[in-house]
Design goal:
The chain is mainly β. 0% of the residues lie in helices and 52% in strands. Strand 2 and strand 3 form a beta hairpin. The chain starts with 19 loop residues before the first strand and ends with a strand. The N terminus is likely disordered.
Length: 93
């Protein structure tokens, strides 16, 4: 396949921030819909950039679109918006 200098721009070349492949343990949490409780589940951060991350978890369907992530070893809980999802993966911004 040709590169950007040959006329084709790869999707990765259009990103504002480069992705870094990582494998970091994390915890995702959110309020249930209707503020009827709290959901927390372990996750694995698969890639990370200044603009967001992709995480893998066992049941992404249980999480709302407004979640907090806490990466193991870091004290901060970071508020995130879900911008893409499958049943086991979330793209967070």
């Amino acid at each position: 396949m040709m590169n950007a200098q040959q006329g084709i721009v790869f999707y990765e070349d259009l990103r504002d921030h480069p992705r870094r492949q990582v494998r970091l343990d994390a915890m995702l949490s959110c309020m249930k819909s209707g503020l009827r409780g709290y959901v927390a589940q372990p996750a694995m951060v698969l890639n990370l950039s200044e603009g967001g991350c992709m995480v893998s978890c066992t049941d992404a369907d249980r999480l709302t679109n407004d979640v907090h992530i806490q990466i193991s070893g870091l004290p901060a809980r970071i508020a995130c918006a879900v911008v893409g999802r499958t049943s086991i993966r979330l793209n967070l911004q």
